[in-house]
Amino acid sequence: MALACQRNSYLQEFTTKVKSCEPAEIKTVANGKQQKLTGYDVILEDTILFPEGGGQPDDRGKIGNVDVLRITRQGAEAVHFVLTPLDPGTEVCLKVDWTRRFDHMQQHSGQHLISAVAEEKYGYKTGSWNLGEKTSFIELDTPSIPQDRLVELEELVNEKIRDHIPMYPTLYDSKEVAEEQEVQLGDLPNDHVGPVRIVTIEGIENNMCCGTHVSNLSHLQTVKLLGVEKGKQSKTNLMFLVGNRVLKYLGKCCENEKHLTGLLKGSPDEHKELVEKMQKSLKVAQKSCTTLLRDLAVLEAQCFKSNPEKDGLFTLHRKEGDFAFMSIIVNEINDERILKFLTIGDEKTSGMFLLSGSEEVVSDVGPKVAEMLEGKGAGKNGRYQGKANKLQNRPKVEAMLKDYLATRK
Fold first, then answer.
1. Confidence at 194, pLDDT banded by 50, 70, 90
2. Angle at 234 between CA 231 and CA 238, to 5 degrees
3. How far apart are CA 225 and CA 148, in angstroms?
4. The pLDDT value given to residue 2
5. Torsion angle of alpha carbons 35, 39, 44, 47, nearest 10°?
6. How far is CA 307 from CA 300, 301, 310, 336, 394, in A?
7. What would the mean pLDDT of 58-65 be, rounded to a whole number?
């Protein structure tokens, strides 16, 4: 027997009775963490709340004033998980979260239409599909889809929507009855027993499906194909939006366009050109900055070497430096008798460090430096470098190195 939500997907309220209520637990994810919820599994005589299936997520809604947090299928029954017990035999009123349900109807019915047209026109068979929270995709059995075909496919699909074509489910008592009506059953298991539900887009396709669907393609409003991504095993994932999701996406695009117009000081038609100019300018500025930083590294080393009062320890911190900056200084000083301790990054948080000198000294104090900076490092050939998680300890490291060198004298 089909559930009420499968017989009429547009029902938003429904009265039924509680058949059973048993203690249960489910695992959920809240704020990125898994947690267990203790509650009750409720089975009703019938339901308008769809359990997950056919690639479509389960509904949300209420049984009376009780929130339904998950709906699963056990055989022919839909099991509703709630936190409050319900007495068997009690008459209850169901309400479906219509915004969520209609969104799922639009995306699922849109997938059927896109898949049917893609196979009919180009021979692209659908392997699977995914109904995501923001976008969905269809896995098509083709290694690639040319851009001109994407444009044509979108036009053909939207043309079918404008044609106001009916879409409806038919329930056959058994697969044998369905076969008598020359319905293609596809991958129906040989041991299947019971009714067979076929969803029809009139004149376009007949497809087995348990999900909830629109009654007419015009209810899809529109379909937008967002593009393709490489799928598994030489397949292609076709990304798409249907109906209200297209409107939300367009609204977000308009909002972003408005912000960019203010930031770039130019009309939307100029955005691409303005960003390209900014990218070119940024590359030039970065190159100039890199050159200046390298020159500064050489000057720092030369200044130290020319100091008649220099001792056996060179230390330097440069917030905006990089490893190349530190390496240039070390190479420019070019004296393993000088112990060189350099750091880069934000003095108040984390960064990188480099210790250079004689292999004996560096191998002796390198791990201690990493430990004091609460970081990790490694080294060889008179160099020890790594990440520093606490650059605030830099003065303590300098003091330790001075004491170390003093004891060696």
1. low
2. 40
3. 12
4. 86
5. -30
6. 11, 10, 5, 17, 23
7. 96
